[in-house]
Structure formats: C-alpha cells, structure tokens
Amino acid sequence: MDRRWGIILALVMAFSVLAGCVGGGGGGTIEIPELTGNFEEDVINLGKFFESQGISTIKYTVWAAGDPNSIMRIYGVVEGAHRINKIFEDNNINVKITIEHYWEDSFSSLYSKFLSSVPQGTNGDFFVNSYVYIANLAEEGYILDITEYANKYSSVLDDFYAPLLEAAKYKGKYYGIPQDTEARPLYIRKDVAKAMGWDLTGLAEKVKNGEFTWYDDYQKAKEAVEGGYANWGVIHRKGSAHPDLMQFIFAFGGRLYDENTGKLVVDREALYKWFMVEYRMAQDGLIPKDMMSWDWGQQIHPTVVGEKDNPSNTLFYIGGTWQWTEWQTKAYYKDPQKGESRPLTPAEVQAKMYYTLFPAGEPGKSPVTLSQPFMWMIASNAGKDNDKYDELKEAYHKLAFLIIIAASDPEINAIHSVISGHVPVRREATALLNDENWTNKLINLELDLSSNVLDAIKDIIKSTADPINIKFLANVSYMLDYTHFAPSHPYYPKLADILKDAIDKVLRGAMTPEDAVNYVVQKVEADPDLKDNTEIIGEIPEGWHFP
Amino acid sequence: MLKRRGTIAFFLSLSLFIVILFYVIPLALTVYISFTPMKNWNVPRYLTEFVSVKNYHRLFHLLKFDPDTRNVVLTTIVFVLFTLTINVLGGLGLALATYFIDEKLSATYQVLWLLPRMTPVAVYSLLWYYFLHPTTLGILNSILMSLGVIKAPVDIGMDPALMPWGAWSVIIFVNGLVGVSYGMIILYSAFKSIPRELIIASRVDGASTWHIIRKILIPLSKWHITFVTVWQLLSLLTSYAHTFLLVEWRIVDPSWGQPWALYVFNTAFVGAKDQGLAAAAAVILSIIGILLGILALKVLGYEKMMTEPRGDI
C-alpha cells in the first residue's frame, strides 16, 4: 500500500515539474517574454510563448468610429494582425490572431458605448477614437497605460510628429498611439466667389499673415447673401464633440486650458467675441439660426457642395480636411442636370473649393486650425475573450500593443490619409505621399495588403486615390504649424456641452453674446466639480464692435 | 383563522416577491448609489466608495445656481399638470363620446385613439419630428404656409420668441395624445359596467344626456377616475421616452423641454454619465412621487373606496 502511494506521489511531482517547464518558467510561475523593441523578435517570442501555453487562436475586437472613408481605423488593425500572423506562419508557430470589428459613424456614441461596456467586459479590445477621451478613460482605468511598451518602441515613435505624441499622453503616460490627424480649413466656394467678382488669388497667404480676418469674412458673407449669389454666408458643423467652433476662441487669442494649473479655462473675452461673430451673422441671415440642429446628410453637406436654391449653397464652410474625400464618396451633390444626388469627382471638388486656415478673429491676432488626432487605444481588459486570460493577461496586452505597432505602419497610415483626407501622423507616411512610385502603386491597387483588407477598401481607393487629393493633403499640411488641440481633461466634455448649448442659444437669438458668456460662467459655477476644475479669466470687453 | 392567514400569505407572496424584486430592491439600489461617486458606469471602482450627501449637495447647488436645472423643475410642474389634465379630461371625454355612439363605430374610434399608444416610441416620435420640422419639410409648416396662415416656417419647439410655452406645448400635446387613450379605455369599461337599467330608467324619466353624465356616469365611476388620475400622475412624473427623442432631435428646446425624469436619464446616461448625481435626483423624484401619490389618494378618498361595504347595502 505504502509503495503504491509512493509511486503516485512521485508521478504527481514529476508531472508538476514537467508542467512547470512547459509553462515556460521554473517554480510554477509563468514568465511572459519582455518586449525588446525589435518587432519581429517580439512577435516570434510572444507567438512561441502562446504556443507553449497551448493557445492556438487569439481573438481581438476593434471598435472604431468616424466618417465613412476612415475605415482603415478598423482595417489597419486587421492588416496589423494579418502581418503578425504571417510572421507566425513563416516561423512555424501555430498561433493565429483573428480580428472582429464594430463600426459607428458617431465617435461620441461609440465612446458612450465603450464606457458602459468595459465594466461588463463586452467592450472592444482596441478602441480607435479621439484623443479627447483619453483623460476620462485613463482616469477610470478603462484603457491601458502603454508607457512601458511604448518606451521599448521609441525608435518607431520617434517618427511620429511630436505634438501628436503629446496628445497621446495623459499625466505624462502614454495611453494611445496616434492614428491620424487633420486640419480644419475654412473652405470657400470658388464658383460663388467668382460670381461675386471676388478674386481669391493669394487669399490663403493673406489669411496666413493675419491680413484677412473674421471681419472680412463677415463682409464677404454679407455680400454673397445680399447679392443673391449664395443662400448662406457661413455654414459650420454642429455638436459639442466637434471642436470646430473652439477655433474661434483661439482665433481671438483665448485659451481653453491652463497648463500650469491643469485646469480648464473659460476666457470671457474670447468667448464674447466668438459669440458676437456668430450672433451678428445669424441675426443678419448669414448663418442659419438653427445651424446646431441641421442634419449632416440632409442639410449640411448638400448645402456645402450644392447649387443656389438646389437645395442651397454657401460661400464659407468651416469644415475639415477629411470632408474633401467624403464629398467624393457620398451622394451629397444634387446634380441639376439629372436631378439626382451623386458624389463629386476629385476634379469637381477642386473646382469648387478653395481653402485657407481659419482666419484670425480680428486684426493683430493669428490664424489657427485645430486638430483632433485619433488614437489607437488598447482596452485595459484587452484579450479578455481568450483562454487563460487571467494568467496570460500581460501577454495578451503585449500582443495587442504589437498589433497597433503593425497598424501604425507608414504605408497603412499613408493609405488612410489618402482615402480619408486625414493628415499623416508619421514622417515616413508623409514621404510616401510625396513618392510618385508609391502613389502610382496605390492608384493601381498594387498594394501589399491582405486580400480581405484590399477588397474592403478598393472601391474607396478607386474613387479617392487621385493626384488631386494627394496634392490637397500636401497643400494643407502647413496648417499643422498653426494647430491647436482641445484640452485633454476629464471635465472638458462637460464644458464643451455647455459651450454648445450657449452657441445654440446665441444663434437662435435666445441670448445676446453677453448673456451667453454669463450663462456659461453661471453653468460652470453651478457645478461644484466643474467649478473646482475651471478657471474663469478675463472680462467682457467694453466698446468692442463686430463687424 | 390560521388557515385563512396562510391562504392570504400564499396569494400575497408572489406579488410581494415581484414588488420586492422589481420595485423595492431597485429603489434601495438607487438610494445606495446616490451616496457613491458613481460615474462612467464604473461600478467595480465606485460601488464601495462613499461620498456621504455630496450628490445631494451638488444637486441642490445646481438647483440654486444653474438656470437650466431650475427650468427642469418648472418644466416638470407644467408638464405634469397640463398633461395630466389632458389625459384625465380627454380620456373622460372620449369615453363618454364612445359610450353614447353606436358600438361598432365606437370600437373603430377607440382603435384610432389607441394608435399613438400602440405605435413604437421611436416611430411615433419620428412622425412628430416630420410633423413639426421647422422647415417646409415639416407637415404643419407646409399646411399653414399653403393656407396663408404663416409666411415662413415656424419652429414651435425651439424658437426663442415662443419659449417656454412653445417647447412645453409640444411635449404636453405629444404625451397627452399618448396618455389619453388609457383613460378612455378604463373609463369606457367603467361606464359599460354600470347597469343599463339605470340609464334606461333615467331616460324614461326625461333625463338629458348631460344629466346622465353628471348624475349617473361620473358619480358611479368616481373610483375609476381616481385610479386613472393617480396612475397617470405617477406615470407622467417618470415618463421621458417621447420627450427624450424630441429633445435629442432638436424639435424641442433642451432648456425648456426636459422634465425631471428626462434630466435623471440624461445625467446618468448621456453627456456627463454622472450616475451618482442622477441617482440623487431619482431619489428626490421617487420621494415626490410617493408623497404626491399618497396626497392624491387622500384627496380623492381612496380609503373610503377600500372600506368594506356596510351590511345593510
């Protein structure tokens, strides 16, 4: 009997030792490979590690949002995983990554969905969204602090534009890697200007030098509407998540954030001037009073690209670079000949749209633009749907990081830039856009992409990969020298909502600019938490006139 | 006696279980959450963190200093009072109308009035969206313009010149139409349960329709009217679905179209996702609802209705 128990005990011990070895580390602990900064080496190490743990399939889900042409926010991750799978295959590692994806048009809705899903564990493993959400998501512990991994890949990150990397940080730590960025030009309809007899030659330079300000915009908008050349003088976007209108604050020399105190800023003077510009324009019939309620597909875009009274048109549009290609893929233009809506061709967009920086608010101030870089973010529970998640969590996180490193490949970034009208986030991607050989390969669909990714994007490439669009991206890239960012602060969405409500009331004439400034201050001070996180500076200027 | 008590306990236990599971526990959880800093759905992080009465303090601070939160209180009072009046009096009027007409016609008429209640909230709100749209796309505007009543489209729910009654009239009317059918069905059934002989006898005695309504139908349906009033009062205090969509689609001004229940929803799930503050607001709403419910039952003589009938009747 004793002998039998002795054999069983010996077998158990032998099995334990064996299991420990198979587990990749002595003493029963699992040693997950460290990242080295060498992509291929790290992929192989992690692949072999997963294989040793008996993991042969790994599933991740990517959640992304945006305009219809920005689908590389999903397919970048799919392509990244494909490239890692290729390395596994070449090295006889029996591990395969699969990517599922979920898309929403509205990035603020996707953010809300992500917030409610993380505690339930039903969120995406990758979250591709605006950097403005990083602060809140990091505070809640919903996204991964990737500083340690990112530092290992400093050679890759060094190629990214520095301000974008700063936007990926919160309290000095990396919570994302830049995916794209953009500028927000002021578009001017060339056909309307021509009908008015306004020669646009050299205007972009004048705006750049601060010689053409919002005072001039007002005059030209008034001329266009009163002369019957356009239905509207100015059209802009809507909603608080879109920072377009915050450009007014910067254009009047104001600010939204104090880096020294880490608090948000309500700048009474800049707010008043912004509100006054919009108030006057709305009161004078140059901007629709219900602008903040306009429908994107039914009203805003059809007016921006439309003809006078068909359905309507505008002289100015405060928009974004990505819309340049959106007008080429979505049927916003109502063709007067056919009576049907259709997308514009690249040549038609070029023929219709002139673009400049967002002009200075008044003489003596500087022109601006505003960027809202999107980030590849990794959920803090990334890899949760896989076997042995609790034991191998760190390995799943590292693999997720490698996937976004692969998704940040210059070619993927350059393709995304061309098809979606976004500005590259890496110097190497910018170089590709200036490389005629590469752009020809793109136009001819001779890309080294997986077949499912190529299938998903080829139609968009066909309609957008045009020398005109590539030239447009090159032409607007100077705007990034003038860019500002909305604050990455947990309370910024709350302040942005208040500003959105205030401008809506100003446009509708429910409040004068002065009342609206006081309304904003009152709302901020009424919320104890927001008040503690906000500085109120400046005064409503006396004797300041617009126009 | 014991057997009787056991039978009572048996029959009550199921309903008691449901009440505890779906009413008492959620209310207790809401009270609990109102003492935590819960936000952004972060239950694991904030569930055991207590902030005492901070959320209540914030709420009263907002009520004191935030103009929009003050508007919420005013909107709630106006919305509940007016919509309740429409629901009860409208329901009564429809029940009376359908009671006195031919039965087949009455059924068709009732089905028509039930349509708003039967239509999914999103579809019904969408109909109102297109009806009230502040451009020529809006049915109301195009009708009024073609009749020459107005020269340019009117934005009833958003035009500052029409505030706050513009926004209030839209939410009252839309919700009133949904709720009116409920009163109609209950009160029509009540009228139908009154012995027919009473009506025939009064007719024989020369009573007019007005007399029949005043002296027979309404007095004999008093408890039904009480029920409809209290039920609708409590429903309106907590209803927000139709209003939410109309505000979201900017058919109604958010500053003047947001009753307390919608404020709770928006604070918890839209914008700030401040679930602790929303829970505090929900607790206040629950307390007001309970007090109003008790008050309404007292005023309308609920105890009298529940008294067992005297033996000599």
Q: If you had to describe this structure to a student in words, what would you say it looks like?
A:
The complex is a heterodimer of chains A (547) and B (313). Chain A is an alpha/beta fold and 547 residues long. Helices cover 48% and strands 14% of the residues of chain A. Chain A contains 25 helices and 18 strands. In chain A, the strands form six sheets. A five-stranded mixed β-sheet of chain A has the order 2-1-3-16-6, with helices on both faces. A four-stranded mixed β-sheet of chain A has the order 8-11-7-14. In chain A, strand 1 (57-65), helix 3 (72-90) and strand 2 (96-104) form a beta-alpha-beta unit. In chain A, helix 18 (410-420) crosses helix 19 (427-433). Chain B has 313 residues and is an all-alpha fold. Chain B has 15 helices and no strands. Chain B has helices spanning 2-33, 43-46, 54-65, 67-100, 103-118, 121-132, 139-146, 165-193, 196-204, 209-220, 222-238, 241-248, 260-269, 275-299, 302-306. In chain B, helix 3 (54-65) packs across helix 14 and helix 8 (165-193) packs antiparallel against helix 11. The longest helix of chain B is centred in the N-terminal third of the chain and has 34 residues, at 67-100. Chain B is flat. In chain B, 36% of the residues are buried. The model of chain B has no long low-confidence stretch (mean pLDDT 90). The interface between A and B is medium-sized, with 29 and 32 residues.
Low-confidence stretches of chain A: 12-27
Tell how many strands the DSSP assignment of chain B holds.
0
Order of strands in the sheet with most strands of chain A: 2-1-3-16-6
Ends distance of chain A: 103 Å
Give helix and strand order of chain B, one letter per element, not per position: HHHHHHHHHHHHHHH
The helical percent of chain B reads over 70%
User: In terms of structural class, how would the helical and strand content of chain A be classed?
Assistant: alpha/beta
The shape of chain B is flat
Rg of chain A (CA only): 26 Å
Strand content of chain A: 5-15%
Gyration radius of chain B, rounded: 24 Å
Which parts of chain B are unreliable, with pLDDT below 50 for 5 consecutive residues or more? Answer: none
Provide the residue-averaged pLDDT of chain A. Answer: 91
| Oligomeric state as shown | heterodimer
Q: What structural class do you assign from the helix and strand content of chain B?
A: mainly alpha
